[in-house]
Amino acid sequence: MAVSGSRVKTALFGFIVKRVSFLAVIALVVGACWLFVLPLPGQFRNTYISENALLPGQAQAYFRSSEWHYLRGYKEEVRRLSDKPASEVVESLSTILSEQGYYTDVYHHEPDKATVYGIFRAPRGDNTEAIVLVCPWTNGNGLFNFNGIAIGLALARYLTKWSVWSKSLIFVFPPDPHKSLREWVAAYHRSLPIQAGSIEGALVLDYPSDLSGFSAIDISYTGLNGQLPNLDLINTVVTIADFNSLPTFIHGGLDKLFNALPSFLNPLKSSAYFQLLSTLLSSVAAQVTSGLNRVAGCESFSGWRIDAITISAIPTSELSHDETVYGRIIEGTLRSINNLLEHFHQSFFFYLLLSPHHFVSIGTYLPAAMSIAGAFTLQGISKWISYIQNGSSRSSILKAFFVEAAILAFTFALLSFSLLFDSQLVAQMLPTFCACIIPTALYASPMSYALLNEIHGVALVLSGMALTALATLNFSLALVVGLISSPLMFLKPGINRMHAGILLLVLNPFFIFYFVGMFTNGYTYIINTFVSSWRDMQVWTWIIVMCLWLPLWEVSAFISMANVREEAKKEVK
Amino acid sequence: MRMLLFSWLVFAWVAVAATRSHTNNWAVIVCTSRFWFNYRHVANALSMYRTVKRLGIPDSQILLLLADDIACNPRNAFPGTVYNNADRALDLYGESVEVDYRGYDVTVENFIRLLTDRFDPDTPRSKRLLTDDRSNIFIYMTGHGGNEFLKFQDAEEISAHDIADAFAQMYEKRRYNEIFFMIDTCQANTMYSHFYSPNILAVGSSELDESSYSHHADIDIGVAVIDRFTYYNLEFLENVSRTSNLTLADLFNSYDSEEIASHPGIRTDLYQRDLSDVLITDFFGNVQEVEIDSSKPRGLLSLLNQQIKQAK
Amino acid sequence: MKWFAIIAALVGIRFLLFLYCKQLLAVLENNVAISTPLTSYQYLLEGLFYYSRNLEIYNGGIYHQSPILLYVMNLLDATGYIDLLSYMLWITLDVVSALALASMDDFRPLTAVIYLANPFTIASLLARSTLIFTSTAILMSLATAKRRRAVLAMTFLAVATHFSLYPAALLPPVMYMSVGSRLSLYSFAKTFFVFVAATSTCMALSYAIAGSWHFLKFYKVSLLFQELKPNIGIWWYFFVEMFDFFMPFFLSVFNLHVFIYSLPLTIRLRHDPLFAAVTVLGLHAMFKPYPSIGDISLYLSLLPLYSRIYTQLKYAWVALLALAYASILTPTFYHLWIVLGSGNANFFYAITLTYVIAMTTIISDTLWAVLRLQFDDGASSKQVIQT
C-alpha cells in the first residue's frame, strides 16, 4: 500500500549529501581563521561614545596639587599598616572613613577576613543609585595594592567636598579582589545593614606599588562567564586618559605576548596588524580564563547587571605621570557616570577590543564560533546520512540516544564527584575514571558500523547545539573548546586503534591540563582552580569541560575503540 | 450726498488701516529638552527670555516653557543658577524668572493649545497667549530636532506641519499681526518649510542634514552652556536697546555661517515688509505706537474731516 | 514485555525527578516556554488560595483558568498532601494520554513511548502545566471519535473547549470523524447537540463552583490578549507596541487565524479527518495567544500515527533540528534578556520565529505527504524526485 521505502531524493540534496563532511571541514577552517581576518583594515570599527549624557572629560578634575599633601599623608598611613594584622587594618580604615563623613560598616566573611565599606550619601541625590570604588588590599596578582588604597582614601576625602553627586558613593576595601569582593557584592544585594540602592557602575583601583610615577593604565574588563560591561564605560575611561595624555592598554598590554615570541619575529611587532591581533587574542584569552587565574576585581560584579572595570596603573620609577593623574582619571570617570540617568544601555554589550580605540561587535566576530559549532552539526549529520538515506531500523537511533544519555549521566556523575571531594583525590582519580570507557568499548559485544556512526552523530549534533548556545553566552570559551575538541569529529569506527589512541590521548581534557600544568603551577593546581572557581565565583568553565567536552571525548573514544560487526560494513549510498 | 459721505468713511478707514502696525508684543520661548546634558538648551531659552525682558516685554506677555530641571539638578556645581557663558558673569536664573510651563507640562499638546488658545475656561491667564490681531509674537524654540520634527522632552515629537497648521488657525482667529519664528536645533530650517499663513518671518539655525553646534563648555559645570546660533544672536542683541534703530536686516547680515558652523536660513516669502524697515524692537521689545494729541478733545466727525482734508 | 518495562521506567523517572529534583521543578515552573499565564501551576495555587477563602477569584487578574480545576485542587488540598497528590494526578493524566494515543494506533506501544519520552512532555509535566487537562481531553476525544463513539467524543471535546477555548476549532474534524459514514444533517445536528449539552453542563458546573458568571472572564483574557507576558508565541511582540486604535483590528485578525483553517482542512481531508485534527493542533501550537511546548509536544506525539508518510517527507530532519536548536536557545536568550540585561526582546523573539519556521515546515511537509499519498492511494511505486 505504501510508496516504496526509499527516501525522497532531490538532485540538490544528493549533491550536498555527498559532501557534508567536506563542508564540515570548510566550516572548521573558516572558524579557525576568522579571528585572524578581523585586525585587517576595514574589518573593525573605531570606538565612540554612544550615550550623550556621559560627556567624558568635559568637567575639570581638581584632584591635584592641594590633594597631593593629603595623599602623602594617607600613603604614610598605609605604609604603617602594611605589616599590621588584619584586625588593626580594618579598624584603622573604618576610623579614617568615618572621620571623613562616611556611613561605615565592616562585613565579616570569616573570623579572620573582613571588608570595610563606607557609603557617602549624595547630599542632593535621592540615594537610590550608587557608584562603587573598590580598593582591594592585594590586587589580582597578589601584590600589595599600596597606592591603590592610598589614592582610594584620598579620593574618599576629596569627593565628599563636592556637592555635584546625584548618586551615592561607596568605597569598599576587601582583603582580595576575588572571593571576598564577590561575597561582599552578594551580601550587598541581600543582607548588608547599610545600602545605597542599585549600583550603576563599579571601578576597581589597582596600583600595586608605592612609587610615585606610573607610565600607563591597563584596563581589564572581562566579567565572568562571558559577560562584559557596556563598552561606553571603557570608552569613557580611555577618552579621559587621552585628554590627560596617558597611554592605555587593554588586558595587560602586549608585553607578555611580545616577550614570548622568538626574536626573528621582532619586525612584526611594530606592524599595526600584529598589535591589533595580539590585543584581540589577549581579549579572547582573558574571556576564557576569566575568574580562573588572575581575578582583576571587575569579575566579582558579574551577574547583578553592574558595569565594572579594573583600572590598573603600571608603576614606573621614571619621571612620568604621578598618582594624582590616576586620581583625576577616576574622578573624571565618576563625574561621567554621575551624569547618567539610567544604567549604561546605549552602547555594545557584546564586543571584543582590538585596541583601546578599536573594537568589533558581535555580528563581526560571532561567525567564528558559529562556524565551528556548525562544523560539529554538519559532521554529525554526515554520520547520519546513511540512516537518513537507507531508512535503517528506527530502533537504532533510539539506541544511539540511549548510549548518549548513558554517557551524559556518567560524566554528570564524574562532575558531582569532582565537586564533592577533595581536589587532590579528584585530580588523581578523574583521568582513571574517564579512561574506563576504553576497556568498556574494547570488551563490549560488536556493534554495527551504522549504529556506531549514529551514536557519534548524536554526540556531534548535541555538541554542536550546545556550542551554539554557549557561543551566545561566552564566545571565547565556545571558540576555544570547539577548536580544541574539533579533531574528535574525524574519528571513525574501525580505524587503526593505535592512531585513534594517540589522538584521543592528546585531546583528552585532563591530558591537556597536565600538559599546561607542566608550564604553570601543576596539574593539581589547575583542577583545584577550576573547582574552586565554580564554588567561589560561580564560573561555569568546569561544568562546560565536564558536560560538553568530556562526553564528546567519551563517545569518540567509545566508537573508535569499539569492535565493529564485520557483516554490517555497508557502503553509504 | 449720503453715498459720498459713506464712501469717504470707507476711504478714511482704509487709509488708517494701511498704516496699521502692532500695538503689543508677546514672546513664546520654548525649550523642548530635559536632562542635565541639555543644559545649553535651557541656557538658550533663558538668554532669550532675559533679552526680551530687558527690551521691555513684561512677564505677563511672555510665555516661558522649560523642563526646568537644570538649576536644582544635583549635578549642578553651582546650585540654583544657570549660566550661558563660561565667565559666569550673568546668572540667568537668579531672580525674577517666571516659568509658565515647567517639567512634564511642556508637551506638544500644551504648546499647540497655547498657540491656538483652545483651553478649558478655567485655565489661568498666565498660561494663555492672549494675543489679538495687533500683536507681534516672537516665538523661539530650541532643543533636539531633525528633518521636519522637533523632539519634546524625549517622549514625543512635533512636526513642521503641526506648527504650520497652528499658525494657520491663529491667522484665521486673527491672533497675530506678525510672527517672528526663530528656531535653534539640528536641521532647523526644515521646521519652517511648511508655513503657509501670511505675515510670518522665520529664521532657523541650520539646513537639512546639518547639525547645530554648541559654542563652548564650562569646565566646572562640565557641560556645554550655549549654542552657537543663539550665542551670535545674543552678541548682536547686546547692542540693541529699547530705543535702538537697528533692523532685522542688520541682524541677519551679521550672521557668519563659518562662525556659526552651519547655514542659518531666513524665510521671507510670507512676510510683506522689507526687512530693512523692521526694527528689532518690533519683535524683541515692547514699543507701542502711541499718538500724542495735545489739542482739545474732538468728536469723531471732526477727526474724520481732518483725515479727509489730509487725504486731499 | 520490553515495552511495558520501558513505559514503567519512563513513569518511574517522572516520580524520581519529582522526589529528588525539587529545584529543577521550580526552575521549569517559572520557564516562560513551559508555563504561560493561562496554564501556570503557580497561578493555580494562587487561585486556590482565593477559592478556599471564598474570595472573589477572577478579580485578582492572576487566575485565568476554569473553576472546575479549583474544585479538584481543593479536594486534593483537603487531604494535606497537595504537592504529591497533584503530581500524581498529572502523571495519571499523562499515562491516560499515552494510552489514548496508543489506542488510536492499534495499541502499538512505540507511540505511547514516543509520547512519554518526548522531553517537551516531561518538562511540561514537571512544571505541572495545566495544559495537560486540555491535552488529555483532546486525545480522548480523538480516540473515541476514531471509534465512532460520538457522544463520548463530543463530551471530551466540550471539556477540552471549556478548559481552554481553542479546541473548539476541532469541532469540524471531530464531528466528521464521529459521524463516520452516516453523513446526514440529522447526525451532524445530533453530535452538535451533544457538544452544546456538554458545554452547558461544564458552564453550569463552573457557575455552581464559582458562584457567579464572572468566571467567563478567563475566556476574555485569551481572546483579548489581556495578559502581556513573553512566551513562544508570536502575539506578544506585536501587542507590546501596538496603538490602542489598531487593537480591535489586529485582535480579530489574530483570533481569526486560529480558527479559520479548521473547516477548509476538514473538507479537503475528508478521507482522513483525523489528520485534519492533527494539523489544526499543529496550527494552534503556532497561532494560539499563549502557546507552550506542551502544545508542540501534543502535535509531535500525534505524528507517529502517520508513520507511513515518513518516506514522503522532504524536510523532516531540517525542521526537527531547527526545533531542537530553538529549544536550547530559548532559555539562553531569555536569560540574556531578563537576567543579564545584555540582550533584549529581539533576541528572544528571533527564537520564537525559529519555532514558527520549524512548525510551519513540519505542518506543510506532513500535509503535502498525506495529500501525495492520497493522490494515488499509494498504489504507484514511483519515487518522487524534485529538483
TrEMBL record, chain A:
Pfam families: Gaa1 (PF04114). InterPro entries: Gaa1. GO terms for cellular component: GPI-anchor transamidase complex. Keywords: Membrane, Transmembrane, Transmembrane helix. It comes from the Eukaryota. GO terms for biological process: attachment of GPI anchor to protein. Signal peptide: none annotated. The chain crosses the membrane at residues 20-40, 359-381, 401-421, 433-452, 458-491, 503-527, 539-564. This is GPI transamidase component GAA1.
Automatic annotation (TrEMBL), chain B:
One of its GO terms (cellular component) is GPI-anchor transamidase complex. The active site is at H144, C186 (nucleophile). Residues 1-18 form the signal peptide. The keyword Signal applies. GO terms for biological process: attachment of GPI anchor to protein; GPI anchor biosynthetic process; proteolysis. It comes from the Eukaryota. InterPro entries: GPI_transamidase, Peptidase_C13. Gene3D superfamilies: 3.40.50.1460. This is GPI-anchor transamidase. One of its GO terms (molecular function) is GPI-anchor transamidase activity. It comes from Tortispora caseinolytica NRRL Y-17796. Pfam families: Peptidase_C13. Pathway: Glycolipid biosynthesis; glycosylphosphatidylinositol-anchor biosynthesis. Keywords: GPI-anchor biosynthesis, Signal. Belongs to the peptidase C13 family.
From TrEMBL, chain C:
Belongs to the PIGU family. It comes from the Eukaryota. Pathway: Glycolipid biosynthesis; glycosylphosphatidylinositol-anchor biosynthesis. Keywords: Endoplasmic reticulum, GPI-anchor biosynthesis, Membrane, Transmembrane, Transmembrane helix. It is found in: Endoplasmic reticulum membrane. InterPro entries: PIG-U (IPR009600). This is GPI transamidase subunit PIG-U. It comes from Tortispora caseinolytica NRRL Y-17796. GO terms for biological process: attachment of GPI anchor to protein; GPI anchor biosynthetic process.
